[in-house]
User: Fold this.
Amino acid sequence: MSELYLRIALPSPLRRLFDYRAPTQVSVSAWQPGVRVRVPFGRRELVGILVETASTTNVPTNKLKDALALLDEQPLLPPSMMRLCIWAAQYYQHSLGDTFNWALPALLRQGKPAQARQQKMWLAKLPLQLDNPLLTRAPRQRHALQVLAQHNQGIAHERLEHFGISKDSISALLSKGLVTEQIRQLQDLPHKPPSLAQPELPLNDEQQAAFNAIHANNQEYKAYLLAGVTGSGKTEVYLQLIRETLATGKQVLVLIPEINLGPQTLERFTKRFNARIALLHSNVNDRERLEAWLAARSGHADIIIGTRSALFTPLKRLGLIIIDEEHDASYKQQEGLRYHARDLALVRARTANIPIVLGSATPSLESLYNAYNGRFALLRLTKRAGAASQPKFIRLDVRSLPLDSGMSAPLQKEIRQTLEAGQQVLVFLNRRGFAPVLMCNDCGWMSQCSECDARLTFHQRDNELRCHHCGHTEARPHQCPSCNNVDLRPIGAGTERAEERLRILFPDTPVLRIDRDSTSRKGSMDTLLSPIGSGQPCIMIGTQMLAKGHHFPRVTLVAILNADGGLFSADFRASEKMAQLIVQVAGRAGRASDLGRVIIQSQLADHPLLVQLSEQGYFAFAEQALSERRATGLPPFSHLALLRADALKAELADLFLEDAYSIAEQLLDQLKIEGVELLGPITSPMERRAGRYRAQLLLQANSRAQLHRLLTPLCNNLENLPSARLSRWSLDVDPIDLF
Ligand code: ADP
Ligand code: ZN
Ligand code: ZN
Assistant:
C-alpha cells in the first residue's frame, strides 16, 4: 500500500508547508483538509492545520517524521475559511501556518478540543411527585421541585440560586430520586427565532433610501459605502438591515474599531434584539472567545460583533457584513500578519456572495475612490437624525498669541461662556502626559530616550519621564544631568497639563481627563464618563479616545488644541488622518438640540486644507486630497509594499535591504515586470527604536498584479539570504503607516 503524506501548515515564519507521514492507525478518510494535527518539530511539538494530502513527497525518507495525532474529527475551518486564509497568506506574503494562528482562537491554537462548554442541567423526574411523603417535612425541597417542574428544559447548575434553589435541596432531591441531572452541550440549547426587543425608529428619507438600496439587492455581493455625517443615524440603518437579515435565518458579522467597544455600542444591539450575540474583542477571555467562535461556526449565534480579528470567524449562514467606522486605523494589523480587516472582509463578502456595508462619517480615501469609480455603491446621509444640526467650525489663528498650557486667551473665554450658559465642553489634545519634553533652562539639555530617537514625555502625576515609543520609564531627574542646574522646565502641553490648568481656571467645574493613562483600568472609561450624563456643566479633556463612538448630548463646544501636526508631516496620509480626527471629534458636539461649535486653534489657520475642511466639509476636503494623490501617484492611485528591517547595528539592516534591492531589481528584469519602482533603502524616520536601528525599502507599483508578481519570488529569496539572519525583517503590503 502506498504511503499517505500530510502537507501541514505550521505556526512558523517560513512560507511553506511541512510534510509528515500519516500514522497508519488513522483511517485515510479522516485526513480532511482543515483538521488539526499534532506533529514533532525539532525538539518541540506543534499543532498545525492539514492543507492537503499527497501520495508523494520531496522530503528524503530519513528526514520524514510521523504525525503524532489527529485532533479533530471534522475540519476546524470550513472550506470557505480555508480559502480565505490561503488568500490572505498569499496576498500579505505571510506564512500560511502563522496566518491560521492569527485567525484561530488561542485555545484552538494550543490544541484544545473544539467543543462548546458542557452544562449540567437539573430536571424534575417525571411523573412529578410533589406529594411524595419524603417531601412533607421539607418545604424548601418541595418548592425547588416545583420550580424545576416549571422548566421543561431544566435549570442549569450555575443558575440554581437565581431561582432560589439551594445546592443542598438539589442533592437531597437527587438522593430521594426525585430529580435527574443531564449534561448538555451549550449549543444544544433550543434555538428561538430572533425577535425585536425594542421598537425601531421610523427611518428618515435619507436613511430609508439607503436601507432600500441595500435591501433591494441583499441576495448577492455588493459593497455599499454608507457615508453619513456623525449622528446621521447610520447605526439605525445597520440595525434594521440586521433585523431583515436575521428574519431570513442568516447571521450577521459586525466589525467595530478597537476603541469603540464601549457598553454604549453593545447596548444598542443587545437592547434591540432578542437574539444570541457573540462578542469577540480584546476584553473577552480565551474561553469566552472560543465559545463565541464555536457558536458562530455552528450557527447558534445570530449576531457576531467584534474587532479586527473577528473577521476570521467561521459563520454557518453568513448573510451580511457591516464594517463600522471603516476608515479606522485599528482595522489594519501592524504586526505579524499585517492584514486589513476591511479589505479582507470585502474579499470574504465577494466569495460568500453577500452584501457588505462600510459605514463612516469620514470614509477613507481608498473607499471613496472605490465609490467614485463605481466599485462601491455610495449612499449618503447628509443630515443629522432627530433634532440635532451640524456644528459650526471656527478657525482660531494663534500665530501671535501666547499659549497658556496649550490654550489661548480667546479660547479660554469661549470655554467660560459655554460653561456659564450651563453647557459642557470637550477639549481635544492628541498628546498624553504633562509635557512632551523636559528642558534645562540653562544649558538646553532635553529629556531623551536612551533607546529611541525620541524625546521622553514628562508625566507629572507619577513624576516620571516616559518614552511613548518603547515604554522606557525613568524618575524625573532633580537636576540637569548635563550641568546640574535645578531649573528643569516642562516644554509644551499634554492632556495632564491642560487638565491641571483647566482645574485652576474653572475651580467649580468638574474636569475629566480621558486618555490611555486615565482609562487603563477595565471599565474605568465608563466610570469617568458618568458625570457627563448628568448634564451639568463640565469639561472633558482627552486624546483621540474621545473622538470615537461616544454620545455627549450636552456638549456644545469642542476645542481642538493642536491640529497642526497633520499639516506638515512627512507621512502622506497625515492630512487625511487629521481631517478624520477633527471631523470625528467635532461630531461629538451638539448631538442634542443645542447648536454645537468647533474651535480649531492653529498656527496655520489659513492652511487651505483647514479652510476647506471647516468651510466645505469632509467630502470637499477628500476630493481635494484625492486629486493631490492622483497628481503625485500615491495610493489609491498606486499600490505600496514596505519592506522594513531592524537590527542592533545600523549596517546590518542596511546590508539586508541592499541585498533585497538587488534581488528585486534582478527579478523585475528576469520576470519582465513593468511599472514597479524601488524607493530606497532609507533609514526610517525614527531611526532608532527600542535599541534597534531601522531602515526600509518602499515598493511602489501602478498595478497590484505586477506588484504581487514581484513580491512572491522576492520573499522566497529573502528568506534564504544570509543577511536576513542578522536582521529582523517584515513585509507590509498596503501599509498605512510608512514609519
Ligand atoms: P451615527 O451612527 O450615524 O453616528 P446614530 O445611529 O448614533 O448615528 O444616531 C444618532 C442619534 O440619532 C441617536 O441618538 C439615534 O437614536 C437618533 N436617530 C437615528 N435615527 C433616527 C430616526 N430615524 N429618527 C429619530 N432619531 C434617530
Ligand atoms: Zn543643563
Ligand atoms: Zn524609547
